[in-house]
Design a protein that fits this description.
The protein has one domain (25-151, 186-217): 3-Layer(aba) Sandwich (Rossmann fold). 41% of the residues lie in helices and 22% in strands. It has eight helices and seven strands, in the order ααβαβαββαβαααββ. The chain has helices at 13-21, 25-38, 56-64, 77-89, 127-137, 155-165, 171-183, 187-196; strands at residues 44-50, 67-74, 96-100, 112-118, 138-149, 203-205, 211-217. A seven-stranded mixed sheet has the order 3-2-1-4-5-7-6, with helices on both faces. The structure holds S-adenosylmethionine. Residues 8-10, 24, 51-53, 56-57, 73-76, 79, 102-104, 118-120, 123-124 line the site of S-adenosylmethionine. The site of S-adenosylmethionine has 22 residues, from helix 3 and strand 2.
């Protein structure tokens, strides 16, 4: 199945609210646990989260790694507004900063020590822009953890995944999940992107039927 693009930003307020209300506990905590498992030596430093959405992953990571500070970047104003509220309630405003901007426009005063991103790449029309930003915004030796959806073989297979994992979710979330699966990349696509960007030290893995994960250190 060919890739079918979906809108880059999730900037419809209703869409952002539905996303923020959804239960991503297993996926998001799993992402944070994996970061700690992959990089047990990483205890302190500046972590950049590209496409942070409502900041659930930054909050979970900040709780797990109390000596880290995190910058989340998202181009959607309603996502950032929700994220700022949740960070305040969590009492983490001194360690998590959010920026409402497209990652393609992000400039940091100093390069980050780690870059993380979950479920962003499939939104981006040109995926090389994402990997370019990872290289530009993180320092040499920085750790990287990127996870996203895996494109199924057909639209029927995509629908079957939505039915299996999101049967009880609101219609707007089911629609977005389906569209995201169609917009996502295959393992071969991502491997080719990494090779093209000279990021071959980053390794790709497919942990389940709907995700790929890339991890490693930048040269
Ligand atoms: C599916 S959500 C994932 C949110 C979060 N990472 C999570 O795992 O809960 C994707 C987010 O990426 C944001 N996004 C898409 N393209 C972007 C871009 N070019 N720059 C910054 N954010 C972007 C969207 O607005 C949306 O909030």
């Amino acid at each position: 199945m060919e890739r079918v693009l979906e809108p880059e930003l999730m900037d419809d307020p209703e869409q952002a609210r539905a996303y923020a209300r959804a239960d991503f506990e297993e996926e998001n905590q799993g992402f944070v646990d994996r970061f700690v498992e992959f990089y047990p030596e990483f205890k302190a430093g500046h972590v950049l989260d590209l496409g942070c959405g409502p900041a659930d992953i930054p909050i979970r990571l900040a709780r797990k790694l109390p000596e880290c500070r995190i910058t989340g970047v998202d181009g959607s104003p309603p996502m950032i507004a929700i994220g700022l509220d949740v960070i305040c309630v969590a009492g983490l405003a001194d360690r998590i900063a959010l920026r409402c901007e497209r990652f393609q426009d992000t400039v940091l005063p100093e390069r980050a020590d780690a870059v993380i991103s979950n479920s962003l790449l499939h939104h981006v029309p040109n995926p090389l822009q994402f990997w370019y930003a990872v290289k530009k915004l993180a320092q040499p030796g920085a750790v990287v953890l990127v996870m996203d959806l895996l494109r199924p073989e057909s639209s029927e297979a995509a629908q079957a995944i939505v039915d299996k994992y999101a049967a009880d979710e609101p219609a707007i979330l089911r629609r977005d999940f389906y569209n995201s699966l169609l917009a996502s990349f295959t393992e071969d696509d991502v491997a080719a992107q990494l090779a093209e960007m000279n990021l071959s030290r980053l390794l790709i893995d497919v942990p389940d039927d709907r995700h790929w994960i890339v991890g490693g250190r930048l040269t």
